[in-house]
Design a protein that fits this description.
Blueprint (H helix, E strand, L loop, with lengths): L6 E3 L1 H23 L9 H22 L7 E3 L17 H16 L3 H29 L2 H4 L15
Helix pairs in contact: 1-4, 2-3, 3-4
């Protein structure tokens, strides 16, 4: 996107997002390894929900096409994507991350990881989403296109 005049914002917090995810998986591994890798008896249900979450994530990624990346990069004047899950909510990929940070530790009964990293992830996403939405409002038609969508709760696009 930078080849098309893309502008990156939020560089200063990107390293912290990477560290958060590394810490999450290290914590999950340590917590489960020290407890003999327990798994919930109802793991098939959690696994099915995780598969649905992954479907939503990849639907979001493919809907964004060449605009998807892990950084916050905008092409000034570009139109906001409002197809796929973006018809129903503003941040389906972040919703998927929130659910993963809860469901994966739950699956392995890693309750310390679940609580600690769900809170850290919420704090990080609150900041990141504010930065991202400010950039979207500045560089794109985000305010007018997404005004009828909530951030995470799916909404019928036909409802007003």
């Amino acid at each position: 996107m930078e080849g098309r005049g893309g502008v990156e914002i939020g560089k200063e917090h990107y390293m912290w997002i990477v560290m958060l995810h590394i810490g999450f998986f290290l914590s999950l591994w340590i917590e489960t390894a020290t407890r003999g890798y327990p798994v919930l008896d109802w793991w098939p249900f959690i696994a099915c929900v995780l598969l649905i979450v992954q479907f939503i994530r990849y639907w979001a990624i493919t809907s964004l096409g060449p605009y998807w990346n892990t950084r916050i990069i905008f092409v000034p004047g570009a139109h906001v994507v409002k197809r796929g899950p973006y018809r129903f909510m503003r941040h389906p990929n972040y919703m998927a991350v929130i659910l993963e940070f809860a469901l994966i530790p739950l699956l392995f009964e890693a309750y310390v990881t679940l609580g600690l990293f769900s809170m850290l992830n919420a704090w990080m996403l609150l900041y990141r989403i504010r930065v991202e939405e400010c950039g979207l409002a500045k560089y794109t038609d985000y305010a007018s296109v997404m005004s009828d969508c909530s951030r995470f709760i799916p909404k019928n696009p036909e409802e007003k």
